[in-house]
User: Fold this.
Amino acid sequence: QKEVEQDPGPLSVPEGAIVSLNCTYSNSAFQYFMWYRQYSRKGPELLMYTYSSGNKEDGRFTAQVDKSSKYISLFIRDSQPSDSATYLCAMSSLQGAQKLVFGQGTRLTINP
Amino acid sequence: DTGVSQDPRHKITKRGQNVTFRCDPISEHNRLYWYRQTLGQGPEFLTYFQNEAQLEKSRLLSDRFSAERPKGSFSTLEIQRTEQGDSAMYLCASSLAWTSGTYNEQFFGPGTRLTVL
Assistant:
């Protein structure tokens, strides 16, 4: 079983919809939780990160972390066609390499 | 500085050949990471350097793989005797080392896409 599980989709929604993306994880040592966006044949770019449990909002994007349930979410409000991409959750502990452990990625399409 | 750069962007090789990839990190970043991403999967950690020291290697990094970061600047990843299973996107990322209470983002390069025929 993978440390981080993410539904690969694909997910297709109409423009303006609210999008919900989710990941679960098994490693209690994870303290930082990130969401990356990756366009086709490009490197991932960081959207936002959260430390420990709680919510964080940045414009149309909201990240939620529930450490008790080992569950994280990303919500996108008023989705735009330019939001179409693969969304990757990633997690890291504070120790050692602080390497990122990624989910499989969810491929999202926003239809005009 | 325009970010992390990788070269080449694409590499096609025949099985059994050796290939080498280069990564140039953001200049002030002392940490450099290599990840591998196969189609439809998220990136997986391979190895990382702090300055010139290679501090951790994943079990994914077989003895056919070697990475260097001379003088703590650019890094190279070499794959010897390539196999079809090595076909993937190889991503490099750089960051400052984390300090207490501070998160330092890993910035990714565009990747090198390797195809082994």
